Task: inverse folding
């Protein structure tokens, strides 16, 4: 009988022994989103920056999928996909772009929700706050300029039970962008205090504010008062004294390849880093898999050569009628840098001239200058510019022309600086010291504007600027149709203008992703999709 | 726990009258047979009025010594009528026992105990093991489909080593698991680990369906319970059984692909430039390909492959000890090259009765299974491109080469751009190493102590240790490791240890009062804990690919993974079963469960149930009805739960992944702390309320057994890992935006019929039939406030990831297919001809492309909302994922020593999304050099205005449409098995106890209208996404020949 009771006792004992304690399992694999120290806030901030380099933004989608095909470039793949404006709202690139921008916004919100912690040193945490605010603003700017008015997400605790969030108006989104960025301007570091253009500096904030304002001044808001704002922000950058053009245009891009910085010229750039073999995943597909001088030689740097320049772009650069080469040489040093005159044939690759002006590959990013070896085949650690000083100058020129109904001396000065650098006149030994790079005096507003349009093509080709520029200028569709006609009567074949075949009014905005519309019932589709 | 059929011993001493007569001891020998003349082992033979007894051996023989010449011998055996025979001086007594129609003492395994079958109030069904074990399959899940009403089994596909999805009475949950709870020898497990069990080792499988039966499993009972009991030792001399079968698997008929001429013609339309460069050089024209030989890699990819299986067991025991040991080796090559499954398994049991009160038993099972081979339906990468899957390359392979090409030995197609990752699938499959090894050790023990004759205390505990080891190595001749990929040769090795232990203590009171009241009470408590780990590493740019996995540590870069997770569960349970004359029966049960998966405050749940049964056949007015042998009405109601979500879903968590962060100033990247899970602290159980009304009828001495069940299951607070709009920003490091929520209500209701008949029962011939059919209706009753639908995407190709082919809508079943309604092909009459251009008429809707770009021959969709633009606003329901009814039909014939079993299984009314057609019947992604199904030869051209197949490149979207939705109904001749038992005389000569030879065939023939290879697939299976078919591993027809001998 004793055993009997013993067994019973054990049974009850085991049964009742502190069940709640037994159920208190602790996760060991992850951490809570508290960001209690500056170091933790920095990890949060790194996450906000992280999306910039993702494939869905500057790693691939922005420079390639959404912007490769305009009048200055096209892709040789012949694929009927996003690169030639064939997409539906379910398109993967369009969806990933949207998704990743909001991912960045949420991460910024999470940092902003924790950053005002009085226990942390104010100066340090304010720098973090400024960067997070600016990046949130920038992501909203990308959303607004690509998708129109979008839902505003400004909290770190979104309601998962009520996910039907309607669009804010386009103006409201831009107001948020301006608010975030102007707030950030006073918080972030000066460019002169930074080692490179990867971190947000005050100049980057001001320069991007200029871009935001000049965009607001154009289509679709057409708020012309913003030209003045744009100019003021750009002038702040110019007058800070921290920035100047790199005298050597090609050196800007060689520096990206060599992992060197020049914050004077390259005010804000997306950082890509490392090699697969050292465990990095912070690389771009744009350079290598897509663009670069066609090369099968991995030692030189592989490139699929998928991004090609159009003959129209080639022709846009001035030609030296006295030269004896074919094609004629250009005094504009940018031409033969941006458009590769040769390809690498065979392994080891031999630079072989490519006379076909419709089939030259983009040469702006050249993998032969990369310093990290062994080079990965299709991915590259080269940084990608978002804001260069020449853009600040050209925005001043453009805004001045608009504000005053024609170019001012200040406008001329700005654009001519860019042109003189392009012609090598800032080099210590200019190749053609006598050449006149300046625009002729006395241009009308329209003539000057046309020069801006062309100058931006020459200067920023393959930097994902062309499509947004045309859209804000309000002539994207017409211009593409016009270009198509020109191309077909100037040696292009059907495969070179696949994009222009497909572009229609609806392409002024990207479609709202099907996935979003399916889950957020308050969301509406953009026109034409 | 020991749950085998109890052997009932009749003849109780105090009732006996000591017979008069001679006191001389006499040895009586004899043999006991069943009605067919087969010897019956294990029959208890007792001298009436004494405690003296014995048990018949394997050949049914016994010997017993009795006092005197007029003793009475009592022969009893479970399921048989008890016979009493007067010895009358004889020394040899052979006895034939009849089946006991009423099976009065048949007991059924239920949760935490056994009950007499007639005292059951719940819906509990036993699998007919003797039929099921005839299927030549590696694990029970492959042969369960169609066996039991209400149990549906969705095949993943035929990939060696995979297990099927078992669902009982419809899917009640959405993203909480819908699979039942498996209780293997008393240890509750949330996965079946079906491969660890040799089907021959299974004694019984009981399916608990209604709340009366499952509520005692509380928080995990909502999806039903599968109780598996394995064989243990039996009393008597050791019996050694050897069973072996050999056979082969045959791949199904290959799909019809385009031949050389049609392919070149198509390429010339799709991309003239490519066709020119590859096919129209050296003056060749299209006509030159009319007689060209066509390559079809399906022949090389699939093969007939051998399977063999050996098992040996020994079972035996003495009065107080019983033991068993068994082992099994199974080796099954896959029908795709370089794939297969192997299992080594062994098992021992020991039960010891120490004295009348104390009994102790243990059992241990060890299995080691290895499955290997490229996974056909899923590509190897974490990001999914359909073109990385092997079958994509097999079907899409160019059927004809250009001049000077020798593609079959080359990894890369020289005519493809170097950015195309497609490779020669045969080379890749031959070179790819992908191996999963699962070692599973399961050990259980119990101690049973009878506190009083009626009160039994039982301590039971079990431990399961699992180690899953995954290895992969991709050398330079594989899709994943070739020179075009920056990872170069790469590989991984990962370990996932799982340890799970439970302690179950029960107190059982079982007593019969006054012979009319039967009371069975169980109370107990259970604690269970599981820990999962995950560690290992992957490596890229391996220096020497010859070293394989062993060389991964020397690779240029290694990326380690480590982590662990855990859950625990604590429970109290109780059940009362009261039966009055086995006529009126009452059951009440309850369980109180606490789970670590919820925040404190939401952890505990209470799950009660009650049931009554009325055996009308015991009533006086029906007792007189001759043909009625059983009639029972059962009614039950109760609640069960479902807690099967991730271990810490209630917490928001951040991770610092290797690939998340940012490099400032070209320095080592600053790692980012990124969202891993957005927690919902208010999460709680999902609760299912189920009502069941059942009726059992036995007629003509149970020659006809009918069973019908009507049920309604309503699941509330359904656990959903809900997709969130991306604009919530909650996209995690896994690249999805989801959070767990309790949402709404789902109802499953249905009816199940089972009919078992013995059609003919003659001395030499017997024919019996089993038929079951079940209908289940599923309906979403409520969703979150303001929500009218839930959409679900399927991850099979990146470009299709952002449309949602499945929907769950209010008042409609879940798992419906959702997309555009396909409306044929645009014809010329839809256009105005303006200056040589075809301009879509202004009253004709677009197909999602810009209006100006729509051309004759393009795919056309229905514009539901009439805005003349086809987009996601025009999505509608285009198919149903779940069947209207499913069932099985089995016939067994016996003629002398022969037995034949023919088993059909079917599913009716469900649709499939044949996603293969997106790529191979029109090439939705317009990929160059991708071969197509032969059907696409009939595509739209100006000369052939097909309304079925759009023109070349005539689909430019990534929408799912009704075009890919097909009727998935099928009737399958699933198992045919023919066996022969050699006559006893011959067997005796061979010094054997029994000898059987047999042949079995699995998946012999399928009647279906489905155009794919197998209608019974679900390659991206979840409750929301049933019936998705993409590049499924084809289902083999397996033929085996076997021999089984006992000695």
Result:
């Amino acid at each position: 009988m004793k055993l009997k009771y013993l067994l019973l006792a054990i049974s009850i004992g085991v049964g009742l022994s502190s069940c709640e304690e037994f159920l208190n399992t602790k996760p060991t694999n992850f951490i809570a989103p508290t960001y209690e120290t500056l170091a933790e806030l920095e990890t949060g901030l790194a996450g906000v920056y992280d999306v910039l380099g993702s494939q869905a933004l500057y790693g691939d989608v922005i420079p390639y999928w959404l912007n490769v095909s305009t009048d200055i470039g096209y892709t040789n793949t012949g694929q009927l996909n996003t690169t030639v404006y064939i997409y539906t709202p379910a398109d993967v690139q369009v969806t990933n772009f949207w998704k990743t921008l909001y991912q960045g916004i949420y991460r910024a919100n999470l940092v902003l929700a924790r950053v005002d912690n009085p226990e942390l040193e104010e100066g340090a945490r304010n720098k973090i706050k400024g960067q997070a605010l600016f990046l949130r603003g920038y992501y909203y700017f990308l959303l607004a300029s690509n998708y129109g008015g979008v839902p505003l997400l400004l909290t770190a605790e979104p309601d998962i039970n009520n996910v039907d969030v309607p669009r804010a108006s386009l103006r409201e989104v831009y107001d948020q962008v301006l608010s975030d960025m102007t707030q950030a301007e006073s918080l972030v570091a000066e460019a002169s205090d930074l080692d490179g253009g990867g971190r947000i500096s005050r100049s980057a904030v001001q320069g991007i504010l200029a871009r935001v304002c000049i965009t607001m001044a154009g289509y679709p808001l057409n708020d012309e008062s913003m030209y003045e704002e744009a100019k003021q922000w750009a002038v702040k950058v110019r007058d800070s004294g921290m920035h100047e053009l790199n005298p050597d245009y090609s050196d800007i891009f060689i520096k990206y390849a060599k992992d060197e910085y020049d914050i004077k010229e390259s005010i804000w750039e997306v950082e890509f880093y490392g090699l697969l073999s050292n465990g990095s995943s912070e690389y771009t597909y744009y350079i290598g898999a897509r663009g670069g001088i066609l090369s099968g030689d991995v030692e030189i740097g592989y490139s699929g050569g998928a991004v090609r320049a159009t003959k129209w772009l080639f022709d846009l650069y001035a030609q030296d009628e006295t030269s004896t080469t074919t094609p004629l040489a250009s005094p504009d040093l940018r031409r033969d840098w941006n458009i590769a005159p040769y390809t690498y044939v065979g392994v080891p690759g031999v630079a072989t001239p490519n006379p076909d002006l419709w089939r030259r590959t983009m040469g702006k990013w050249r993998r032969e200058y990369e310093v990290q070896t062994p080079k990965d085949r299709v991915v590259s650690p080269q940084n990608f510019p978002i804001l260069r000083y020449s853009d600040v100058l050209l925005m001043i020129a453009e805004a001045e022309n608009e504000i005053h109904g024609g170019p001012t001396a200040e406008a001329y000065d700005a654009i001519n600086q860019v042109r003189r650098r392009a012609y090598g006149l800032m080099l210590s030994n200019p190749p053609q010291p006598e050449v006149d790079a300046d625009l002729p005096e006395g241009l009308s507003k329209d003539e000057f504007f046309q020069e801006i349009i062309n100058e931006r093509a020459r200067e920023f080709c393959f930097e994902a600027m062309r499509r947004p520029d045309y859209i804000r200028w309000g002539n994207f569709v017409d211009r593409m149709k016009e270009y198509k006609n020109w191309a077909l009567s100037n040696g292009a074949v059907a495969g070179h203008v696949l994009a222009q075949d497909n572009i229609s009014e609806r392409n002024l905005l990207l479609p709202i992703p099907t996935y979003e519309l399916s889950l957020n019932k308050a969301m509406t589709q953009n026109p034409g999709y | 726990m020991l749950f085998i059929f109890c052997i009932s011993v009749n003849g109780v001493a105090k009732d006996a009258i000591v017979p008069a007569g001679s006191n001389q001891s006499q040895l009586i020998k004899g043999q006991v047979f069943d009605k067919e003349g087969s010897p019956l082992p294990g029959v208890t033979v007792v001298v009436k009025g004494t405690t003296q007894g014995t048990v018949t051996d394997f050949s049914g023989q016994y010997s017993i010594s009795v006092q005197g010449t007029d003793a009475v011998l009592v022969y009893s055996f479970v399921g048989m009528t008890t016979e009493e025979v007067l010895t009358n001086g004889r020394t040899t007594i052979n006895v034939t026992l009849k089946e006991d129609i009423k099976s009065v003492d048949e007991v059924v395994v239920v949760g935490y105990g056994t009950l007499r079958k007639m005292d059951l109030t719940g819906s509990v069904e036993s699998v007919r093991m003797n039929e099921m074990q005839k299927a030549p399959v590696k694990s029970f899940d492959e042969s369960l489909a169609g066996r039991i009403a209400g149990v549906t089994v969705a095949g993943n596909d035929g990939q060696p080593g995979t297990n099927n999805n078992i669902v009982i009475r419809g899917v009640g949950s959405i993203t909480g698991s819908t699979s039942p709870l498996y209780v293997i020898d008393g240890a509750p497990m949330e996965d079946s680990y079906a491969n660890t069990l040799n089907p021959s080792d299974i004694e019984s499988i009981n399916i608990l369906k209604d709340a009366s039966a499952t509520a005692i499993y509380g928080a995990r009972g909502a999806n039903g319970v599968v109780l598996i009991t394995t064989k243990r030792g039996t009393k008597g001399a050791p019996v050694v059984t050897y069973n072996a079968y050999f056979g082969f698997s045959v791949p199904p008929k290959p799909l019809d692909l385009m031949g050389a001429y049609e392919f070149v013609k198509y390429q010339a339309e799709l991309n003239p430039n490519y066709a020119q460069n590859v096919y129209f050089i050296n003056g060749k024209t299209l006509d030159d390909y009319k007689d060209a030989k066509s390559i079809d890699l399906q022949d090389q990819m699939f093969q007939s492959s051998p399977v063999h299986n050996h098992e040996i067991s020994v079972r035996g025991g003495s009065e107080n000890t019983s033991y068993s040991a068994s082992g099994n080796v199974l080796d099954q090559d896959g029908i795709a090259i370089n794939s297969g499954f192997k299992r080594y398994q062994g098992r021992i049991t020991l039960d010891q009765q120490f004295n009348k009160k104390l009994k102790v038993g243990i059992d241990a099972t060890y299995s080691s299974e290895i499955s290997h081979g490229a996974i056909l339906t899923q590509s190897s990468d974490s990001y999914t491109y359909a073109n990385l899957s092997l079958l994509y390359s097999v079907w899409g392979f160019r059927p004809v080469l250009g001049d000077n090409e020798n593609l079959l030995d080359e990894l890369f197609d020289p005519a493809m751009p170097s950015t195309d990752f497609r490779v020669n699938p045969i080379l890749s499959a031959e070179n790819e190493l992908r191996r999963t090894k699962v070692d599973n050790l399961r050990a259980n023990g119990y101690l049973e102590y009878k506190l009083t004759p009626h009160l039994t205390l039982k301590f039971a505990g079990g431990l399961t240790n699992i180690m899953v080891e995954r290895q992969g190595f991709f050398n330079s001749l594989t899709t994943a490791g070739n020179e075009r990929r920056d990872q170069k040769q790469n590989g991984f090795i990962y370990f996932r240890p799982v340890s799970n232990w439970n302690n179950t203590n029960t107190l059982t009171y079982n007593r019969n009062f006054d012979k009319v009241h039967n009371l069975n009470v169980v109370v107990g408590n259970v604690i269970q804990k599981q820990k999962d780990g995950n560690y290992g590493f992957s490596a890229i740019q391996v220096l020497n690919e010859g070293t394989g996995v062993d060389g991964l540590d020397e690779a240029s870069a290694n990326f380690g993974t480590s982590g662990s997770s855990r859950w625990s569960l604590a429970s109290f349970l109780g059940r009362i079963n009261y039966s009055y004359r086995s006529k009126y029966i009452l059951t009440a049960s309850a369980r109180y469960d606490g789970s670590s998966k919820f925040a404190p405050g939401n952890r505990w749940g209470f799950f009660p149930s009650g049931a009554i049964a009325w055996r009308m056949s015991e009533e006086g007015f029906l007792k007189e009805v001759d043909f009625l042998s059983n009639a029972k009405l059962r009614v039950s109601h109760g609640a069960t739960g479902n807690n099967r979500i991730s271990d810490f879903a209630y917490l928001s968590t951040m991770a610092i992944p290797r690939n998340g962060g940012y490099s400032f100033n070209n320095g080592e990247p600053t790692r980012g702390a990124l969202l891993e899970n957005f927690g919902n602290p208010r999460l709680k159980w999902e609760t299912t309320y189920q009502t069941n009304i059942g009726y059992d009828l036995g007629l003509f001495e149970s020659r006809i057994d009918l069973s019908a069940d009507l049920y309604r299951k309503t699941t509330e607070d359904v656990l959903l890992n809900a997709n969130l709009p991306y604009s919530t920003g909650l996209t995690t490091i896994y690249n999805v935006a989801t959070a767990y929520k309790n949402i709404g209500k789902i109802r499953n209701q249905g009816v199940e019929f089972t009919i078992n008949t013995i059609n003919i029962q003659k001395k030499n011939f017997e024919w019996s039939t089993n038929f079951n059919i079940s209908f289940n209706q599923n309906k979403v009753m409520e969703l979150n406030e303001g929500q009218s639908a839930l959409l679900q995407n399927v991850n099979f190709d990146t470009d299709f990831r952002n449309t949602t082919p499945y929907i769950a809508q209010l008042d409609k079943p879940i798992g419906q297919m959702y997309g555009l309604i396909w409306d044929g092909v645009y014809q010329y009459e839809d256009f105005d001809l303006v200056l040589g251009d075809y301009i879509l008429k202004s009253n004709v809707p677009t197909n999602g492309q810009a209006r100006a770009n729509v051309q004759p021959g393009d795919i056309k969709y229905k514009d539901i909302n009439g805005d003349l633009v086809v987009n996601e606003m025009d999505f509608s329901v285009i198919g149903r994922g779940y069947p209207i009814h499913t069932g099985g039909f089995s016939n067994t014939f016996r003629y002398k020593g022969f037995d034949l079993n023919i088993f059909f299984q079917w599913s009716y009314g469900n649709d499939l999304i044949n996603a293969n057609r997106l790529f191979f019947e029109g090439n939705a992604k317009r990929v160059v050099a991708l071969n197509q199904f032969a059907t696409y030869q009939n595509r739209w051209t100006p000369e052939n205005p097909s309304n079925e197949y759009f023109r070349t490149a005539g689909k430019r979207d990534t929408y799912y449409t009704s075009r890919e939705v097909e009727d998935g109904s099928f009737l399958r001749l699933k198992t045919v098995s023919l066996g022969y038992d050699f006559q006893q005389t011959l067997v005796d000569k061979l010094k054997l106890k029994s000898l059987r030879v047999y042949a079995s065939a699995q998946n012999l023939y399928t009647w279906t209208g489905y155009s794919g290879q197998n209608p019974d697939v679900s390659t991206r299976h979840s409750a929301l996404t049933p019936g998705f078919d993409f590049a499924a591993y084809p289902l083999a027809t397996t033929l085996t020949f076997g021999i089984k001998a006992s000695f």
In short: The radius of gyration of chain A is 26 Å. The longest helix of chain A spans residues 122-147. The CA atoms of residues 95 and 371 of chain A lie 35 Å apart. Chain A touches chain B through 113 residues (CB under 8 Å).
